Amino acid sequence: MHDTNRAIAGHDEKHFQSGELVRDVVIGMSDGLTVPFALAAGLSGAVSSTHLIVLAGMAEIAAGSIAMGLGGYLAAQGDAEHYASERTREEREIVERTRDEEEEIYEIFEEYGVERSESASVLEALKRNPTAWVDFMMRFELGLEEQEKGRARQSALTIALSYIAGGFVPLLPYILMGQASKALVVSVGVTLVALFTFGAVKGRLTGAGAWKSAFQTTLIGGVAAGAAFGLAKLLNKM
Amino acid sequence: MHDTNRAIAGHDEKHFQSGELVRDVVIGMSDGLTVPFALAAGLSGAVSSTHLIVLAGMAEIAAGSIAMGLGGYLAAQGDAEHYASERTREEREIVERTRDEEEEIYEIFEEYGVERSESASVLEALKRNPTAWVDFMMRFELGLEEQEKGRARQSALTIALSYIAGGFVPLLPYILMGQASKALVVSVGVTLVALFTFGAVKGRLTGAGAWKSAFQTTLIGGVAAGAAFGLAKLLNKM
């Protein structure tokens, strides 16, 4: 019934991996298409040569891709360490503080109106199998899920490369053309089409609806670029 | 026992809200301190006047804060809609496809080695209380949690303002000084101290460890700024 959610929630290993990949591409490309686009548009409101815009755009892509990629890597690594340390703690606690942990199982079920007499048989089953008990506590008490091995590195690379790929779309007209005001027009056209297409694909893959996501993604890029353009024009006059 | 996690997982309403707030400040400020810093450092490798650097930096802060804030708002709104539609679906299914939903409960428990005879009493208890049954399915089958009302708007504002606050730290020396190479030195000094302090506070609040987080946060900013600086210098020679 809930095929999409089951896939995303990880019931199917293959779907799960591609779901995570899609998520990382979306994270990187959303910002990559938007921020360098807006920065280049903003600078076009202030300088006439594309040289400096390309320079600033490339510096932004380098900075943004590293900040997002490395930031994502360290966050994922931190999650993995947190999972491992909490798991070790649970493993110790079901042995050393068995009564407290039993109490916690009862309390989880009581939140859903299940009486102690009714959840006792589940507790007995979990106590037969300590690994399953720890698995159960990790997921239902702490809400933590184990990551795949190598996830942090793959995620960081995917996010960074998607950011770079996205960032080159708005920048390419500035690289190929000499005059900023003309490159701006081409860049706006190309990037709005790219944002719309990307939003539509994203909406279809995540189940949020192609049209809605296409409009929202284009809106974010447009508003950010418009604000950057206006601000740069204003500052340049000061 | 698991006070930190319980607070983060939302067992305590007050702790939960401040946990979300901290998370949003961290998201916005991490990128706000890093990307404008790296962009300004990169441009310092290519231009001598601070005027253009301030212009590019302000355009970046405008673009980045809007992209992150608006992006976060729409993502949170999408999650809320997804939760509501899945909840409606579950509410319908426990009435119309009761047998399938019962089967799903058994399957959840079987993953943890709990036999059907042992989980039957929990199922009976959930069937007494349809709201609790739906709550249970939302959390344990689908892994979805309900957001607070107004969460999306508050989250978007917090992220955007934190990005702006973070972004002004590296930019201030360029605003106050005329020569890019001198402003760069001050900006690097001020921002590395800010990254280190921010990393330490973040590490303490999230429980990841103050020193470790301080070094990691400083590393990301330093690597991103170094790469942007080198790339801009290289491109400027071409």
TrEMBL record, chains A, B:
Keyword hit for Cytoplasm: no
Transmembrane feature ranges: 156-177, 183-201, 213-232
Keywords (A to Z) from UniProt: Membrane, Transmembrane, Transmembrane helix
Top-level taxon in the UniProt lineage: Bacteria
GO MF term set: manganese ion transmembrane transporter activity
GO cellular component: endomembrane system
Chief localization: membrane
Coiled-coil portions: none
InterPro entries according to UniProt: Ccc1_fam (IPR008217)
Signal sequence extent: none
Classification via Pfam families: VIT1
Membrane topology note: Multi-pass membrane protein
Subcellular localization: Endomembrane system
GO term, biological process aspect, one: intracellular manganese ion homeostasis
Name listed for the protein in its UniProt record: Nodulin 21-related protein
Organism per entry: Acidisarcina polymorpha
